[in-house]
Amino acid sequence: MSFADVEKWLREQGISNYTISEDLYVSVQGSVNLNGKLNGQKLPVKFKQVDGYFDISNNNITTLEGCPKTVSRDFNCSRNKLTSLFDCPAEVGEFDCSHNLLKTLSYAPKEVKGSFDCSYNELTSITGSPRTIKGHFKCNDNKLTSLKGGPQYVDTYFDASHNFLEKLSGGPISVKHDYICHGNSLIDLEGLADEIGWDLITDIRLSHLTSSFNEEDKCWRYKGAQVIAHIYKPLVALTNIDDISRWLAKHDIKSFKILPDNSVDVFGDVKLTGRLPNLTKLPLNFNMVEGDFDISDNELTSLEGCPIKVGKSFYAHKNELYSLKGGPKEVGGSYIVLHNNITSLQYSPTLVKDDFVCSHNPLRVLEGLNTVNGYIFTGVYLPRIKCQKYNYKGITTYKYPGEAVMKFLDQEYISLTDEEKAFEATKKNLEKVIKKMLNAGTLTKDMINDTLIKNLTKYQLDQLKAKVLYIKYPPNEDNSNIPSEDDIMKMAFDQEL
After folding, report:
1. For labelling alongside 64, which of 151, 285, 371, 424 has CA 20 to 30 A away?
2. d(CA 335, CA 293)
3. pLDDT tens-place values along the chain, 497 residues long
């Protein structure tokens, strides 16, 4: 189109207060209403910026090509035949892409100042939506199986009804008005928001709470605050600085520093005993804690998120732990994990400067235990080691000097059989010979036979095997199989869409 053609089209659409750049991009100091005016045809002009709203709904269009990059107020592309939001504005007021054929929210606006409506599409994911929604968020009547990647804070209502959701995990942390999730395949309300300002609308019956029943939609309405107080509700992992700061302040942790990777250093104690109801793991990652770290008397099943280093003592007793994975690597005081379900001491700290207490766990051996400067309290009996014996309510605990246990474990180390020794010796010899030939450049293609490849496989010398195979089957010298830059860009673009 020429300059005159662009002007003519703008006038025909009743668009005024515009400027046209040399490259024919249009900026409008006002609103653009193209509702039902395009008759299935894409925009014939290219917009750059619109200071008002931009309405391109009810047109049966299949592309957003030509849409502005920035819209100060609302952007409406609903009731079309869109399969992609490519060319969508990056910044809008309210955003409405409902009643289309979208399967993904890729290329959706990165900043939405109002509501976000992506209902009545074919979405299988809401990844790509903004993290905070200042109005409502509607993703109802899609094909969602997960809420992961969706908004975390919604300032009015959140509607995920009529999808294929089995869990609410990954959904918003805070919803200021109604949380609507009926018409799904939910078994329970695990993953529900931490805050619901108004009501929860669901087809899950909660017999212990007051509710009202909607006969038309076959769903119950509950007070959100009452639901949150009565159901199992794990916290979504916190990865945002504001969220982390808020959580720390809530738990009276005042002297801290949030590191670039969002882990936390604490310059004092962390006292979380009995304060993590229904959580199976910590919602954030601690890096270092100078004082005590106490997560005892909760329902944790994992130590994931615990600090790498604890300056004083570490308390994780009376939980539901089955592994020490994720726990601290160095503890300046005592390490206390009694009354759990731990069956192995693998992932124990490399150093515990005081006592290691692991009694009242279903342990049978102490393999995996590292350096303990104090005493070890355990229900495992170790012969030939002097100890003190305690018995309380039929449960026996033994107290051993840490140094003695270390020596015992060293002595109990299972030695290799003759066959295993021969295997290791052959492996070392084979590795030595092949490395020497590779370094000297004396290993040729003709020397590499099936027997050599089989032996490299047998003796688990995978890195050497890869180098040998490179010599045996070098890449084509003409580089005929190497894709060009254009091919790479095409593949990347195809994958993105």
Report:
1. 151
2. 10
3. 899 999 999 999 999 999 999 879 999 999 999 999 998 999 999 999 999 999 999 999 999 999 999 999 999 999 999 999 989 998 999 999 999 999 999 889 888 999 999 999 999 999 888 888 999 999 999 999 999 988 888 999 999 999 999 999 889 888 999 999 999 999 989 888 878 899 999 999 987 788 899 998 889 999 998 887 666 333 447 878 999 999 999 999 999 999 988 899 999 999 999 999 878 999 999 999 999 999 999 999 999 999 989 999 999 999 999 999 889 989 999 999 999 999 999 888 889 999 999 999 999 989 878 889 999 999 999 988 999 999 877 889 999 999 999 888 766 544 444 665 777 788 888 889 989 888 888 888 888 888 888 888 878 788 888 888 888 888 765 545 545 556 555 555 554 44
What separation in angstroms does the CA of 212 have from each of 60, 206, 221, 423? 40, 11, 5, 72
Please report where in the chains the tokens 């019956």 appear, as a residue.
205
Residue 416 carries which side chain, given as an amino acid letter?
L
* CB-CB contact of 112 with 130 (8 Å): yes
Torsion of CA 377, 383, 387, 392, to 10 degrees: 60
Instruction: List the structure tokens of 9.
Output: 């089209």
Q: What's the rounded Cα separation, in Å, for the pair 341 and 344? A: 9
Q: Is 241:260 a contact under the CB 8 Å cutoff?
A: no
Contact 161, 181 (CB under 8 A): yes
d(CA 442, CA 436): 9
Q: Where are the beta strands (DSSP E) in 308-352?
A: 309-310, 314-315, 330-331, 335-336, 351-352
Phi-psi region of 326 (alpha: psi -120 to 50; beta: other; left: phi over 0): left
Specify burial of residue 384 (Cβ count, 10 A radius: 0-12, 13-18, 19+): exposed
Distances (CA, A) of 186 to 167, 195, 204, 225, 410: 6, 19, 7, 20, 52
Q: How far, in Å, CA of 272 to CA of 319, rounded?
A: 12
pTM for this predicted structure: 0.52
**Residue 233, token pair as written in the block:** 């509700």
